[in-house]
Design brief:
This protein is mainly beta. It has a single domain, classed as Beta Barrel (Porin), CATH 2.40.160. An eight-stranded antiparallel barrel has the order 1-2-3-4-5-6-7-8. A hairpin with a 3-residue loop joins strand 4 and strand 5.
Length: 209
């Protein structure tokens, strides 16, 4: 084989070797940039503490006459069950001498301690609609008639909506109806027994640990 023929043969071999490498270079694509989903604000599970303020009355509209300022603190725990939220809460409130009607006159509600169960449904990632119910102990003082000493037990029912502001802080609005049965009063001449019902609307803020 002549020198020229050898050169041609080597050139052909080199071309076949280089072709796959060149093709790989031409077909190489840069990897697509990764996408990081926005961070979730987390579920509703966890312990929390908070405060509340609002109005109370024995009328369905708590802003009518006889209303009292309601303010206090609460603490509780929620469990997020992926589609439902359940929990419990203890709440202590000052009722601001809310007037409630009783046979022969009225009394003033002073303080309340409530133990409540909660159950609700998340609406998206940040909103919770819930119902609540439990037991309430109410302390009363004399109004136009003399009332009972100490604390009287009753039951509570209500509903609310809570909105997350960030992963730890949330704001809520809650309505409660409390019924206290068999309240004995003395009007100066006779003793009578009646039931007391009151309504409250409270706005609050919670901090979740």
């Amino acid at each position: 084989m002549t020198t020229r023929a050898k050169s041609v043969a080597l050139a052909v071999v080199a071309t076949f070797i280089a072709a796959p490498v060149l093709a790989a270079d031409l077909t190489y694509n840069e990897p697509a940039p990764s996408y990081d989903a926005p961070a979730s604000s987390g579920g509703w599970s966890g312990a929390y503490v908070g405060g509340h303020a609002g109005m109370g009355s024995d009328h369905l509209n708590p802003f009518r006459g006889g209303k009292g300022f309601v303010g206090g603190v609460q603490a509780g725990y929620n469990a997020d069950l992926q589609g439902a939220v359940v929990g419990g809460e203890i709440e202590l409130s000052h009722l601001g001498d809310t007037k409630v009607r009783v046979p022969g006159g009225d009394l003033k509600e002073r303080h309340r301690l409530a133990v409540k169960a909660k159950a609700g449904m998340p609406m998206g990632d940040s909103t919770l609609l819930y119902g609540t119910g439990g037991m309430a102990m109410t302390n009363m003082r004399d109004g136009s008639v003399r009332g009972p000493d100490g604390w009287k037990p009753g039951w509570l029912a209500g509903a609310g909506v809570e909105q997350k502001l960030n992963s730890n802080i949330s704001a809520r609005v809650e309505y409660n109806y409390v019924r206290t049965n068999d309240v004995r009063v003395f009007n100066g001449t006779t003793t009578q027994t009646g039931d007391i019902g009151d309504h409250s609307i409270k706005a609050g803020v919670n901090y979740k640990f």
